[in-house]
Amino acid sequence: MEPILNKDEYTFYLIGNVDDFTERLGRVVRLGKEEIAVFKTTDEQIYALENKSPGPRGGTIAEGIISGEVLFDPICDWKISLKDGQVLDPDTGQVRTYPVHVHGNEVRVGLVKNEGGRFHE
Amino acid sequence: MVKVQERRHLVLIGNGMAGINTVEQILKLAPSTYRITVFGSEPYPNYNRIQLSYVLEKSKAVEDIILNDWNWYLENEIELYTGTTVTHIDTEQKIVKADNGIEVPYDALIIATGSNPFLLPVPGADKEGIVGFRDIADCQNMLHAADQYKKAAVIGGGLLGLEAAKGLLKLGMDVTVVHLFEEIMERQLDHTASLMLQAELESQGLKFATGKQTEEFLGDERVSGIRFSDGTTLDAEFVVMAVGIRPNILLAKESGIAVNRGILVDDYMRTSAPDVYAVGECNEHRGTTYGLVAPLFEQGAVLAKYLCGVETKPYEGSVVSTQLKISGVDVFSAGEFMDAEGLSVVRMHDDWLRIYKKVLLRGGRIVGGVLIGDGKESSRLQQWIRTGTVMTEAIHNAIVGQSAVETGNTAAELADEEIVCGCNGVTKKHIVDAINEKGLTTVEEIKVATSASRSCGGCRPVVEQILQYVLGDKYDSAAAKQEAICSCTTLSRDEVVTAIKEKGLITSKEVRYALEWDNPEGCSKCRPALNYYLGMIWPAEHVDEKDSRFVNERMHANIQKDGTFGVVPRMYGGVTTPDDLRLIADIAVKYNVKLVKVTGGQRLDLLGVKKEDLPKIWKDLGMPSGYAYAKALRTVKTCVGSQFCRFGTKDSMGMGILLEKKFERLDMPAKFKLAVNGCPRNCAESSTKDIGIVGNEGAWEIYVGGNGGIKARLAELLCKVRTDEELLEIVSAFMQYYRETGKYLERTSDWIERMGLESVTEAIVNDLDNRRALAERMEVALAQVKEPWSEILNNSNLRERMFEEISVSTKQD
Questions:
Q1: Which end of chain B is more exposed for a tag (fewer CB within 10 A), N or C?
Q2: Does the keyword Glycoprotein apply (chain B) (predicted)?
Q3: Mean per-residue pLDDT for B258-264?
Q4: Distance CA B445, CA B789 (A)
C-alpha cells in the first residue's frame, strides 16, 4: 500500500546502493533523526520501516527474520507486512513505513516534507 | 522398451492372497519385467480368505470379498488358470505340469499354495457332515448344513473355530465349541482375557466343551456325535474341524524341493530349487510357519523387490497379531501376551465395562499386548509392537488411559479469566473460545491464534490440557506428538529429517521446495529448525544460512529489549586470569557498558552494547565467543575440585575445561549445559544440567536430562565410568545422539522423556558399536565449527552489512 501522501510531499534521500543490503537481512539506516530498518527481499524489493517493534516490549525490528514480504519481529515474533507495516494475524498493530525509490543501483527513502517540522532540521 | 516376448516368464502356483499380493507388488515395481501365468485350484479369482467368516455369517457375499476380479487379470495381461491344480514341477527343465495336461515353462516360479485345514486323524473322521473351514467351498457346505441341520459342533477354540462357530450360530444352529485346552484362544490370550472372551461368547449363545479331547466320531454314514477321551459324548449333526492348518507342501515335496513343516525358504523366499520361491502359509522361514495375513504381505514385499532387482532388506520374520473377526466382539492380541520374568506389564481390567487391556514391556519397549472389549487402539498398538516403541505417558494414556478428567486434567477447574500464558497474558477463556470458534486441534494452532505458549513455552502442558478438555474424544494425543514442525507444512520433524537424508536435500530452500512447503520462504519457526537439521545431517556440505538464524545467533550476542546487546566472552570452566579480568574491565569502561553481570554459568556478561560496537568489543577482547546466545554448548560449570578443595576427589576444573574446549561452538537442537563436580557435594549443581558429571573416588558418574529452566527436572544417572577416555566418549555419543534425534528447540529434559532413558542408555552405553559411531560422527561435525567472532572480524563485507549502520544527514534540505 502506497502512503496516502502524494509523491511531491516527500523528500527522497539517497541511502546507498542496492548492493549495500543483503537479501533477507535488515540494516539500520539513520536518516536525520529517523532510525529506519531497511530490508531487501529475495525478489530484490527494498522496503523501509521505522526500526521500532510494534509489540508491547518495544525494541527494534531490523534483526528479524524475513520470509517473502513478511518480517518476523525479533522481539515478540509478530508478523509484519513489509509492504505497509501492518501487523498480521493474530496480532494487531502498525509499523510506520517510508516510500522507497530505486533508480538503477541507487536506493532512496522518502521523508514527509512537512509534518510539524519533524523531518526538517 | 522391452517387447512382450522378451519378458521373463513368471509362474505363480496358488491364486490366493500371498501369491497375488506378490504379483501386485511386482506389477507396481517393474510392470514390464515379467509375463505372468497364475494357477489356482479354486474356481474363483483372488479373494480375501480372512473375510470368509463374514460370508459364513452372511454379512458379506462371495463377490464382496473378491480382491482382484477377472478384469484385473485381463488388464495386467495375466494368464489365469482357475480350477486347475499343478501336479508337478520339473525344477531342472523349469516346467510346471497341471492336472489338465497343461505344461508351462517358467523363468521364475512362485509357490503360494497356502495351507490345508488339519483334520483330526481319529476314527470316523471321513464321515459325511464333517468339514474343514478353509475356502469358499467349505463355507458353502456350512451354509447348506445350516439349512438342514440344527446341532453343530466346532472342534477348535482358536481364531478360526470361534469365527466358524459364531457364523453357524448366526445361521440359527445350536453350536458347541469343543476345545482340547481349558482356555480358548490359549495361543493368543492369557487366562483373564480367555475367560472374558468365553463369557462374552456364552452370553451371545455359544456353548463350550473345553478340556475335551476328541476320540471318535459317532454315526453311520453321516456324523451324529463325538465321543471324548473322558468317555462323555456330544450330539452333533454337523462338525467343523478348525483345529489348525498345515502348510500345503505336497507339490513341493513331490517335486524334490526341500521341505520341513513348510517349504523351506531363506530370507529372500528362495527355496532349495533355483528360481523357485515360496511365499505365505506354505513356507517355513527360520523354523516358523505362519497362519495369518500380515506375514504374507511382508514376505510378498521382500520377494517382489527381490524379483524386480530392487534393493531390499531381508525378511527376518513377522510380529503376528490376531484380531477376532466376529461382529460385536473386540479381541486383539499381538506379540508377547503372557506375563513372564523380565517383562513389565501395564494392565487395565474393568469387569463392569467388560474391558481388559494389557501391554507388555521389555526394557521399557512395547513387545506385546492384548485388548478385549475395546480394540480402538489395536492398529497403533500393533505398530508400536512392531517398531519396539518405548512406552511413554502419551502412549500409556492412549491405551489404558481413562477419560481426561480422571487422568489429572485440571483444565476444567481453571477459572475462565485465569491467565494461562503469563508471557503473553492469554486467559483460559481466550484459548477455549479460539478452539471453539476456529476449530483448532493442535497446540501449534492455538499458539498461532492466541500467542499462548508462544514465548517461553512453560504453559504448553496446560494449553494441551485445555485442548484435550475442550475436544474430548476428538483429541488425538499421538497426532499432537507428531505435529508438524510449523504451519508451513504438515510434516513432522522426523518426516522432514528422513526426507532430507533420503532425497539428499542440502539447502533449506530445496527442502521447502521438494517437500512442498505452503510458504515458499518458510517462517521464523521452520527456518532456524531446517538450518539446524541440514547442518546436523550434512556437517561438511551445508552452508549455514545466516538469514535463517535468530538474531542472537546471527549477531553472536544476546539482543536485549532495548535493542542493545549482551556480550559474554568464553571463560572455560568458569576459570579466568587476572589479566583477562583486567582486560574485560577496561573494555567495559571503554565501551561504556551499562552493567557487568556474573551469569548463572560462571561467566561475565557485558550488557548494553550497541550493535555497531559489537565487532569492536570482540576485537579488543581478543577472546572467543562465550555462546551465551546459542543453541549450542553454553557453559561447563565446575567446582574447585581436587586442585584446591579439601573434599575434591577429581579434577573437575581440568575436566570441565577439556569438555568445554572440545564441544564448544557445535550447534545443538537447543541450548546445552554441562557441569563437572569433583565430589558428590555437587557444588556445580550437576543435577539440573543437560549433562552433569560427578567425580567419585575412582569413577565418574554421568547424569543426563536435567533442567533448571522453564520445566525444572532432575538429571538421571546414565552410567558410571572409570576412565576419562570413557567419559569423553559417552559425553560425545550422548551429545551426538541428541543432535541426531532431538527436535529443534527441544531440551534434553523433554527429549529424554520422549526417548526414554532406557533406550538412550541402550544406544550410547550398552551398544558399543553405536557409541563409537556416534562419537565418530561427532568428530566430523566438530571439524566444521568456526569461532564466530573472529570469523566476522576477518570478513569486512559481512561485518559492515550486518553490524554497521548507514547514516545519512538531512541537514542540506
A1: N
A2: no
A3: 95
A4: 38
